[in-house]
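The protein record reproduced below.
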Amino acid sequence: MKPSPIDRYLRELAQGLDALPPAAREEHLAEVRVHLEEAALASPAADPLEREADAVGRFGPAGEIAAAITAETLLTAAASGFHPVGTARAMAHALTGGAAWTLLALGFSLCYVALLGLALVSVARLWLPAAGLWIHPDGAWSLSLGGFEQSKEILGPWLPLYGPLLALLGWLALNRVLRLVIGLGRPVSRRKRETV
């Protein structure tokens, strides 16, 4: 017997969700199954297989949906605390989750990299006295391991103490903003599933 369109779709979707923990993958597959079955019941087609095929067709390509679900799930988990490796992994997956997830990942990645740079320069200050956060005569700012002529290091001798603290607090604040953005936006996956 030939598998139904919903079963074929869910198998393809499951392959795309392989980066997720098994429990999360099964939860998303069950949710998608419910949405597809409800959409199939609402379809005007007479044949049950045609109704399922119609529901699957309106739901969207499994690869795109899987990428968006993976990005959303991993970013939500990474933003729940201080998980630098998990955050980097989630951002990398978000780059494949469609345009909205890519823009979100790029914007937040730049912020995380700046905070990481502040922490690294702060620790380097213990061994390199010229390392710091510099303001230049033209008003530009830069993190550097070496000094600049006619520029002023603005955090002074307190950099090894305040730098990592500011980076950690900035990271946690950025995670909070990321959780809010994910909750408000649901850029791809939730919106597509809710329109079926």
Observations:
- The first helix runs from residue 5 to 16.
- Residues 60-194 form one domain.
